[in-house]
Amino acid sequence: MAPTSHLPLFGGVRAWSPNDWTSSDDRVRGGSSQSELTCSPSSLIAKFHGTLDITALGGAGFASQRTTGEDRTWDLTAYDGIELVIDSADNKVYTFTLKDEILPKRPDGRERSSVSWEFNFRAEGSRTIFVKWSDFRPTYRGKNKDDAEPLDLKKIKRFGIMIRSFFGEQEGAFSLNIVSIAAMRTERYLDEPDDDYIDNVMNEKSATTTASRQAGRCRGWFGWLTSCLGF
């Protein structure tokens, strides 16, 4: 279904900016993976790339980029999900993440863990992926958290793109070229009908009114005729 409303978040008409992103790799846990998001306002594509290392953490590993700023908030309640436009990729499995809460940092400056909402996808060539809110699953420290509170779409605090090893299933160099990330509304709502909907309603009302008038005239003529014939 074609989108009825489209909110560019990164890329597209909103130029990519390296100031919007920062790395969050497994080196914070003693790993050796590393990632970059290479982009600029003059580029139509952001390249998420780096090396996924699984040797330092015994088969585990992850590399990710996340949005910067702890005071940023996006209200996405008017939308039905996230659209990812991929230019090219390496056939690896990536994870798109959302957070609606960022906890105060620890005394040593490290971030406290909080629930992440994740969607895994295999990036194959050029494609557009639409992720409904119901497709995101809550996790805590990489494990499913089935008792998590519902995702608060009114205060999305962070976006992220990640690649993980899945305990040795994938490793080494990776590369994902992203055209844009946007929020999309795909459902048709009665409070915001489009022009075609309005035209159809008006045509239906007009047709109904005309048919009613014709039926009334027929009933009137038929009644006069039957009364003259004594029926």
TrEMBL record:
GO terms for molecular function: unfolded protein binding. One of its GO terms (biological process) is NADH dehydrogenase complex assembly. Pfam families: CIA30. SUPFAM superfamilies: Galactose-binding domain-like (SSF49785). Residues 18-178 form the NADH:ubiquinone oxidoreductase intermediate-associated protein domain. Belongs to the CIA30 family. This is NADH:ubiquinone oxidoreductase intermediate-associated protein 30 domain-containing protein.
